[in-house]
């Protein structure tokens, strides 16, 4: 997973511009509707304090702040005389509307998308990051609906897979787990066909420390094992003609060497475009180079469907 730089702005920089033009009404019952704007303006300081809370808790790595009373947001306003007070509960739909406005009118929305490494989803390191995932889901934690550090550039599929789940997963702005080897990639040649499997590293499976739990949850939620397997197979077929040509244009030994050299060049390209060592591209290509190194001439020719 790619580690991303945190957004360089906070709620303070856009809240007023977002809420002040709002005309949205909230139906209290069949006959009564109110403007939600003054209630949202009144919540400004709560959004700010929760944003600070979010950041300090994530930095200190405690999730204590995610308690149930964050599910609904109560706002009180006084009338002009200050004598009467009215309280309404803004539910997740009201706050969702705030996020919809953020999405439609704010340049900050685009600036969140631009935090993705080369426009790529940090969760899967493959697809375009053209959506925003709420790290802590906005339905469950509406108060973090527009908290910039809770907004993660993501691809459509990863965003869908994650959905409303709020399990412990890796946070791309706060956690860097790339020193740990998440997977083992296995390659087999069965019936002259390449079969790729990814397995979670056994020491992660057996461990219950917080890093291992987050890595396991991340792999599970984003279906990384099966997607990595499918994408690696596609990567193989993307280059098979190039490799077959290299192999055939030289003698067996040099041909194999040239194929492995090409794989190593591709690994460098992926590394230079900031793919982590846990990305499927690096894991698969490294294992493929090892597999080819050990493969007999006969197996190599059958895999490349070379006939004499
Ligand atoms: Zn993705």
From TrEMBL:
UniProt keyword annotation of Acyltransferase present: no
Coiled coil spans: none
Pfam families in the cross-refs: HNH
Endpoints of the signal sequence: none
This protein's UniProt keywords: Endonuclease, Hydrolase, Nuclease
Superkingdom of origin: Bacteria
GO MF assignments: endonuclease activity; nucleic acid binding; zinc ion binding
HNH domain ranges (all copies): 121-164
InterPro entries assigned: HNH, HNH_nuc
Name of the molecule in the record: HNH endonuclease
Organism the protein comes from: Facklamia miroungae
């Amino acid at each position: 997973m790619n580690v991303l730089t945190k957004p360089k702005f906070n709620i303070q920089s856009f809240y007023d511009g977002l809420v002040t033009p709002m005309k949205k009404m909230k139906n209290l019952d069949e006959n009564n509707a109110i403007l939600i704007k003054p209630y949202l303006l009144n919540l400004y300081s709560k959004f700010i304090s929760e944003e600070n809370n979010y950041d300090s808790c994530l930095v200190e790595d405690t999730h204590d702040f995610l308690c149930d009373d964050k599910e609904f947001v109560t706002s009180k306003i006084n009338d002009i005389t200050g004598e009467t007070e009215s309280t309404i509960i803004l539910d997740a739909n009201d706050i969702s509307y705030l996020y919809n406005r953020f999405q439609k009118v704010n340049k900050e929305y685009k600036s969140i998308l631009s935090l993705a490494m080369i426009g790529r989803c940090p969760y899967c390191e493959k697809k375009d990051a053209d959506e925003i995932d709420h790290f802590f889901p906005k339905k469950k934690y509406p108060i973090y609906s527009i908290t910039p550090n809770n907004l993660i550039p993501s691809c459509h599929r990863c965003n869908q897979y994650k959905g409303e789940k709020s399990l412990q997963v890796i946070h791309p702005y706060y956690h860097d787990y790339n020193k740990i080897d998440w997977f083992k990639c296995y390659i087999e040649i069965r019936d002259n066909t390449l079969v790729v499997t990814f397995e979670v590293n056994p020491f992660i499976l057996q461990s219950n420390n917080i890093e291992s739990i987050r890595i396991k949850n991340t792999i599970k939620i984003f279906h990384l094992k099966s997607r990595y397997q499918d994408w690696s197979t596609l990567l193989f077929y993307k280059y098979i003609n190039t490799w077959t040509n290299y192999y055939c244009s030289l003698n067996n030994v040099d041909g194999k060497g040239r194929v492995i050299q090409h794989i190593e060049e591709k690994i460098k390209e992926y590394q230079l475009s900031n793919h982590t060592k846990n990305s499927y591209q690096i894991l698969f290509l490294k294992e493929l180079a090892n597999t080819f190194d050990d493969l007999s001439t006969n197996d190599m020719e059958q895999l490349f469907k070379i006939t004499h």
